[in-house]
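Students often ask why we bother encoding 3D structure as a string. The short answer is that it lets us treat folding as translation between two languages. Here is a chain of 160 residues written in the first language.
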Amino acid sequence: MSENRGSVVGGAVLIMLGLAFLGMQVFEAAGGAFVPLGLGIAFLVTHAIYRNYGFLVPGGILAGLGAGLIAQDVFSLSGNPVVLGLGLGFLSIFLLDRITRTGPAEGYWWPLIPGGILILVGTASMFPDLTDTILSFGWPLALIVLGVVVIVRGVRKSGE
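And here it is in the second language, the structure alphabet:
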């Protein structure tokens, strides 16, 4: 079984590297952006086959990074799509783990922390006007929602 696993991983990496280099030839503007995307996809395919969390983490990070680099280089998006892509890569780790988990239902929640921070920073760099609006109105609204949550929890505990 371990020999088969090595063959699948090795073959998937070679296929994705070949596709990445082919993509570099077709989309010259992207440069090496296809390499991390291709490697990330190879890891994600391997995770899908073997359900091993060790393949999911580098797969999500590399695929997100590669997607962000392609968005920046090929589509010339403003702001910092690389940071946003990396954040989405971390979020994909959490989501794919929840979807494919066969063990305990809790799963790993740690990718939400770097993913959330990177998504916020990437979005803020890409949409500065939206960021100003959210900062102006978001903090007071967040405090109001937090206050409601504290009151509801307090009332529920006193009713028990």
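Translate back mentally: The chain has a mean pLDDT of 84. Keep this in mind for the problem set.
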